[in-house]
C-alpha cells in the first residue's frame, strides 16, 4: 500500500497518505505491532500466539488471531497477507520508525569505530529524531514488555553515543543537559558519569565534575560495593591541577637553511605525527627543536621532549615504559598506573601539548609514546626510516648556498666574502653536512685559522675526519656520530657498508654492489634497501654514499677489501668491454674472454646510454685501480674506455683516463696497451685539442710499438694516416687507408669499411682532392646507414665529413642534407663539440647555397 507509514514509538499506529488508520482495540493493535517488528517477513500463527499470550494462551487463541487479522485487513487492505505459513505486513522496514531508529544507530556506531566523529553525531541525531515517546504504547502482551526494555536500553546507548560524539567534535556544552539527566536515571552506568565529568571539565565546571565523581563513587559503593573503574578514575585525574611542562632544549645558534622544510612542518595539523629522518649529522634534532620553538605558542599546555637514545654510544635505547614514566611525571601524574600508556593518553586527551621524540631507533619504540589526541602534535626524529602514519620529512644535506650561508652565520659574513672560493670548497669538503660544517667553522673561529688553512687541512681525504674532530665535544665528533650508526648494523649490513666504502665513484649501481659483496643482484638490492632505510646510503636512480660516510666506511678494517675491489674492477672492465663491442664492433677485443656474472645491456642504444651514465664512475675506478696497485686492470680499463669516451664526447675525461692508464701500463711494461693508449691520445689531441703535432707524436709511438710487436691495428693505421695528412708529412696515407678499406670489404666488415671511407674523405678533402673526397664521404655515410639504428655517433662523424667535403667541392646545396643529419645526431647525443662544428659548417653551406653564382 503506497504511502503507508508505521509508528511503534508512542501510540502504535499506521498512517496512509497523511490519514490515521483505525487499528481497533489493543488486541489487533498488538498483533499489528508484532507484524511491524518483522516488517516484510512472514510470522507464523504460533509466534503471534506466543507474542500475545505467552506460555498460557486461551483455547480460542488461534481463532482470535484470525479475527484480529480480519479486522486489520479492513483497515490495511492487502498490506496484511496471509498464507499457509503465517502472516506478513507488506511494507519495507524503512516504513517503520523503530527500524529507522535502529538503522541510524547502527550507522552511528560504524562511523564512531572508523574515527568519523562528525558522521557518528549526524547518524545518532537521526536516531534521536525517530524517538517519539514510550515504545509500543497501546500494545499488550508478553512480547511488549521484552521489546520495550530492549528499545529503552538502546535509547540510552544512542544518547550516550551522541554525547560522546558531541565531546569529540568540541561541543561539550551541548551535551551537559542530556548527560546530567541520563546519569541521574542510570546511577550505575559509569560511562555516562565519565562523559558528564569530561563535559563539565571542558566547560570550566571543575567543582561540578568533582561532585559528579563523588555521586557516582557513592552509588557504586552503596549498590555494588565496588570502586570506580579506570575510565572514571582517569576522568577524575584530569581535574587535578595541570602541570605545564616546558622541556624543549635551547635552539642551536646560527640556525640556517631548511626554510622550505620548516614551512612544510608548520602545515602539519594537530593530531598528526611528523617524522624527520636522515643520516647522522644532517641536522634532524636541530630542525625538530627549531620547529618546536616556533610552534610552542600553539601548544599552551606544554612541550614534552625526550631523547630516546636510539644510537647512544654507551647506554641502551630508552624503553617505552621508561619514557612513559618520565613523561607522566612531567605532566604532574602523582601515581604510577598499571597501564601507563592509557593514563598518558588520558592526560593528553583534552590538552594541547607538543611531544618531541628524538633519536628513535624503531617504530615499536615510538608508538606507545604518541599522544593520539586531536589537540596534540608529535615530532619524531630518527636515522632510520620508521613505518609510522603521518607526514615524513626526509632530511638531506644542505645545498651549496645554504652551506656557505651557515659558514657565514658562524664565522661572520665578512670572512666568507673575503674568500668565497675557499668557503665553497670547504662546503664541498664537508659534504654539505651541517655537523661537519659547524665543526669546521668552530675550529676556524676559535683559532688563527683562515678559511684557506682549513681547506688545505681537509684536502687529504685520509686526514679529513681527524680534522673534523673537536677536542672537547664528543657529540660534535663527526667520526663518533657516524660510528653510532655503524655500531647498530647487523654483521651482514656492516660488512656491506665497509665494502661500499672501497667504491671510489659518486654513483654506485647494483652491479657494482653485487661485485663488491660477491652476491647476486637480488641479494644486493635487499642489502641496499636496508642500508637506505637506515640512511647510510642514499638512493635515486643509483646509490650514493655521502663523501664523509665513504671515508668513514673505508677506515673500518675489512680483510676482504682487496679481493672485493678486484672483483669490482673485473666486472666494470667486462661491462665496459661489452659496451665497446656494441658501439664499435670489429675493432677486436682489449681483453679476450673477459666476463662478469652480472651482465649489462649490450644493444647499441643501451650501451650508449650506459656509457653516458657510467663513465664518471668508470674513470674513478680506473684511478682507484692505479692507486691500489691494480696496474694491469687499470691499463685494460683505460684502453677499453676509449670508444665510450669518443662516442659520448667525454674528451676531457678521456684525456685524464689516458694519462692514468698510460702510467699504469708503463709501470708494468704493458707494451700493447701503451700503444693503444698512445693512439687514443693522438685521436683526442687531433679532435679535441686540435694539436696536430702532439697527435702525430702519439700516433707514431703507437705505430712503432705495434710494428715491433708484429701487431697490426686498423684503427691505429687510419688515425696515423689522417694525422700525417693534416701535417702534409706522409705521402702514403691514402694508400694505407685504401688498403684498410679493401681489407674491410673483403672481410664483410661494414663498420670498419665505413671508418676507412670517411677517414679517406677527410684526408682527401684536406689535400684538395674534392671529387674523390666526396665519393668516400658519401660511401662512408651510406655504409653506416646500412648498419641500421646502431653506431649513431659514428654516423654523425661520417655525415659531417661527407657534408664538409661537399662544401669544399663547391656543392653547398648537396652538403646541407648531410650536415643537417650530423647536427640532428649530435643534438640527440648531446655532443656539444659536434653540435658546434656541424652548426658552423651548416651555416656556411646554407649561406653559400643561397648566394648567386
Strand and helix map with partners:
Layout: E1 4-7, E2 13-16, E3 19-20, H1 26-37, E4 42-44, H2 45-53, H3 61-76, E5 80-82, E6 86-89, H4 97-113, H5 117-130, H6 142-168, H7 172-185, H8 190-202, H9 206-224, H10 230-237, H11 259-266, E7 273-278, H12 284-295, E8 303-307, H13 320-330, H14 340-348, E9 354-360, H15 363-366, E10 377-382, E11 392-395, H16 400-411, H17 413-418, H18 420-429, H19 434-445, H20 451-458, H21 461-467, H22 478-487, H23 491-500, H24 510-517, H25 521-533, E12 538-539, E13 543-544, H26 547-555, H27 561-583, H28 604-627, H29 631-648, H30 651-667, H31 671-689, H32 692-708, H33 714-726, H34 733-747, H35 750-766, H36 770-786, H37 792-808, H38 812-829, H39 832-850
Parallel strand pairs: 7-10, 7-11, 8-9, 9-10
Antiparallel strand pairs: 1-2, 2-3, 4-6, 5-6, 12-13
Helix pairs in contact: 1-3, 4-5, 4-6, 5-6, 6-7, 6-8, 7-8, 8-9, 8-10, 13-14, 16-18, 16-19, 18-20, 21-26, 23-26, 24-25, 24-27, 27-28, 27-29, 28-29, 28-30, 29-30, 29-31, 30-31, 31-32, 31-33, 32-33, 33-34, 33-35, 34-35, 35-36, 35-37, 36-37, 37-38, 37-39, 38-39
Domain OmpR/PhoB-type: 1-100
Keywords: DNA-binding, Transcription, Transcription regulation
Family: Belongs to the AfsR/DnrI/RedD regulatory family.
